[in-house]
Each structure stands twice: as C-alpha cells, then as structure tokens.
Amino acid sequence: MNILSPDELAAALRRIGAERYHNLHPFHKRLHSGQCSIDEVRAWALNRYCYQRIIPFKDAAVLARMDDVELRRVWRQRIVDHDGEIGDAPEGGLRRWLALTDGLGLDRAYVMSLEGALPAVRFACDAYVNFVSQKTLLEAIASSLTELFSPQIISERVSGMLQHYDFVDESVLRYFGHRLDQAPRDAEFALDYVTTHARTPETQRAALQALEFKCGMLWCQLDAIEHVYVNGNPFPGAWRPGLGMAARS
Amino acid sequence: MNILSPDELAAALRRIGAERYHNLHPFHKRLHSGQCSIDEVRAWALNRYCYQRIIPFKDAAVLARMDDVELRRVWRQRIVDHDGEIGDAPEGGLRRWLALTDGLGLDRAYVMSLEGALPAVRFACDAYVNFVSQKTLLEAIASSLTELFSPQIISERVSGMLQHYDFVDESVLRYFGHRLDQAPRDAEFALDYVTTHARTPETQRAALQALEFKCGMLWCQLDAIEHVYVNGNPFPGAWRPGLGMAARS
C-alpha cells in the first residue's frame, strides 16, 4: 500500500463504511421498515444494551491512554454524553437507552443484568473494549469512526420506527435525537486526528483495519440477533419472548 | 442455591451439557449426516481453526495461575497435546487440525492468518482466553468440562463424515482420534478438581456458570457459521467459497 494523502485516507475510510457498516444489514432494514414484531424489537434493544453499556468503558480505556491534556478534555465529553453530568442533568445516553427498554416493557434490572443477552453480542462488546485497550491509540480512535456513518442510520431508524410501530413514541426514542448532535461532532474530531496522525503506509493500514474491525463487531451482533430471533433458532439460556418483562403497574 | 454434594454437583454439570453442549446444534447434525456441501465443511474447518489456535493460549493462561507444581505437571500435558513434543513427535493437535484444512484444499497460510474467519468466532475464542485469565482458577478449570461431552460428538463426527463425504478420509480426520484418548483423561481430572474444590454455594454456582459460559461460547460459533454459510447471509470481508484455496500442485 502506498502512502495516502489525508483526503485519500478519509475517502478510504468512508469506503469501508459504504461496504461494511451495519446500516446495510438486513435486520436494520427489517427494523426500520416496520417488519419486526415487538419481540424482535425487544430482542434488539435488550442485546444492544450490552453495546451501550460498554461505550463508557471503551472511552475511559481510550482516555487512559492519552498523554495529552487537550486530547483528554475533548474525549472526556463522550463519557459525559453517555453517563450524564454529575448533578444537573443526570440522564445521559445509557439511561436514555434504558428508557427504550422500559418503553418496550422489559424489566430494567433484567436488562442491566445482561443475563438474557446473546453470548455473541457480549463477546463482540468485550472485544471492542479489549481492542481499544491493547491496540495503538491511533487504532483506538480510528475504530470510533463508525460515527461518520451513524447519522444516516439514526434518522432512518427514528422516522421508520415512529411511523411503523405503535409501541414506540418520541419519548422512548430520545436516545437517538441526542446522538444526532453528538455523533457528527465526535466523528469530525476523530477523522481529523486519524488523517493527521496516520502518515505512514503501516499506520494508515492499521487505521483502515481498525475501522473494519469495528464494522465487523457491529455487524456480527445483528447476525446473532437475526439468527436467533428472526430465523427462530433458540439460543440455550438466552432471553426468549415472555421472559424478563416488567411487572405491570 | 443450597450446597451440593460432589455427586450432585457432577450431576448438575452434566445436566448443563445435556441442555447446552453444541452436539445439539443443528449445524452439527447437518455436518455429521452428510448434508453439508464441501464449502460448508471448509467454512467450519477454517473458522474452527480459531478455536484450535487459542487452546494452547488458554491452557498456558490457566497454567500461569496454578501455584502447585503437581497441578501444573498435569495441566501442562494439554499444551503438549496441542503443540506436540519438542523433537520427537512434532505434530500435535494444532497441526492435525491443519491437516484437515489442507485436505479440504484450503491454503494453510490463509487459514493461519485468520483473515477469513468470522468476527463472531474470533471474539468468542478471545472471550475464552480472557475468561480463564480473569476468573478464578476454579472457574477456569470448570470451563474446560465440556470435554466431558466431547467423546460422543467426536465419534459421531468421525463416523458420519467418513461415511458421507468422499472429500475426507481417516488421515485428515486424525485430530479427532487423538482427542478420543485425551479428552476423557482431561475431563476426569477437571471434574475431580471441581467437585473437590467447589464446596460452597457461591463457588458451586460459579463453576456451573463457567460451564454455561463455555457452552455458549461453542454454540455461538456454530450459529455464526450456520447463519453465514448455510443460510446464505454473506459477512462483509469474511471468507467466501473460492477464496483462500491452495494452489494445485
């Protein structure tokens, strides 16, 4: 691989998204077009909580590797976005996600226990935390670049879900509204960092592979959910419809 | 959970296998009954190499946590079985597995690169290494107890594959013949260790959960293979038929 200009590297990163980002996954098409049963949406929200849960771990692991106070000040905001401000705005992305699982009738403690989550989803999430802890800082930051592609999927998701499902409303989907502001800000910063710091063929290849890793990590979660809950292949010990529901008040 | 006698604990461990071990997975039934295409068998062997590859890592991580020379002497044999003796018998389980992928026409360097392996399979294997590194020694040893259930699946596999597929013979399946001797010896030792050392409700529960973890880790690998290669949902960037074949001599 020859060395790429920053613009060429940015274009190569975007091509990975165009080929591998999970907006292309059949389960997302199904979800957004109203073909999912409420139990399929529950399975998705319950499993996707595993991913929401590890985002602050992942960002803290990245933060712990940054030997530059300015970089840390910027990156820290991601943890604030997920965990909420101390004191005045105690919600944050993680609790907004739980508002969705609440809205779907799932018991919050059951969701948070991860007991019903599919092993493949848990392993993928753990792999992401390990990746950013063990690879170079450049690769850790490059793996966050799926944010470049998320505004489109989020817009499709919110409008599609509101239109097709009477069991969701804007209040339970509020997680996504916040991400529409946060993701482009984060992605722009990370793209600038990666195209500035990856200036050898080796580091450019590593950055591209980091984004491929991340796309695979997202995609395989949907494969697992689709295989078990759409195609009807029960997973021993995992959530099944009827389990883990909140008591009706 | 009340405390179980050693026999009750052994029975509870065996029940987990009877409910969750991957001999119950539809892909294994398909494989053993001759319904797989050669490309499905290739996909399985190529992906399963990820698991073969990490077995010595896993056993070395367990060994590194044993503060008892006698225990280490016993456990060390597992690494010898997989890596081969130095000098006089340079084969070992890992290379016997590669004899199978060779026999299926796959390029050995491609298989060993893991390039074409499914992310879900790689993440599951990494999760196993992390599990035995991070949990208690008791849990690490308990997670090896799937060996209790493997002789049956291996017998079914070897006889089924020899009967149904003209592209395998006894020579490429020699990995399994060796495991038929090794697995019962290993499982007996581990079962004795676990039933002797798990003498509180908490440690007994941990041992049972460790075996559930291991069963899930094996099952989700077959789910991923089945979803992509049997049900025809291509995974971006992963092996597909035609890729990674050895040059014909």
Quick overview:
By secondary structure, chain A is mainly alpha-helical. Chain A has a single domain (6-230), classed as Up-down Bundle (Heme Oxygenase, Chain A), CATH 1.20.910. Helices cover 69% and strands 0% of the residues of chain A.
Task: Spell out the key features of this protein.
Heme Oxygenase, Chain A, homodimer, 249 residues, mainly alpha, 69% helix, globular
Q: Could you explain how this protein is built, in words?
A:
Chains A, B: Keywords: Oxidoreductase, PQQ biosynthesis. Chains A, B: It catalyses: 6-(2-amino-2-carboxyethyl)-7,8-dioxo-1,2,3,4,7,8-hexahydroquinoline-2,4-dicarboxylate + 3 O2 = pyrroloquinoline quinone + 2 H2O2 + 2 H2O + H(+). Chains A, B: Belongs to the PqqC family. Chains A, B: Ring cyclization and eight-electron oxidation of 3a-(2-amino-2-carboxyethyl)-4,5-dioxo-4,5,6,7,8,9-hexahydroquinoline-7,9-dicarboxylic-acid to PQQ. Chains A, B: Pfam families: TENA_THI-4 (PF03070). Two copies of one chain form a homodimer. The first copy, chain A, has 249 residues and is an all-alpha fold. Chain A has one domain: Heme Oxygenase, Chain A (Up-down Bundle). In chain A, 69% of the residues lie in helices and 0% in strands. The first copy, chain A, contains eleven helices and no strands. Chain A is globular and about 55 Å long. Chains A and B meet through α7 and α11 of A and α7 and α11 of B.
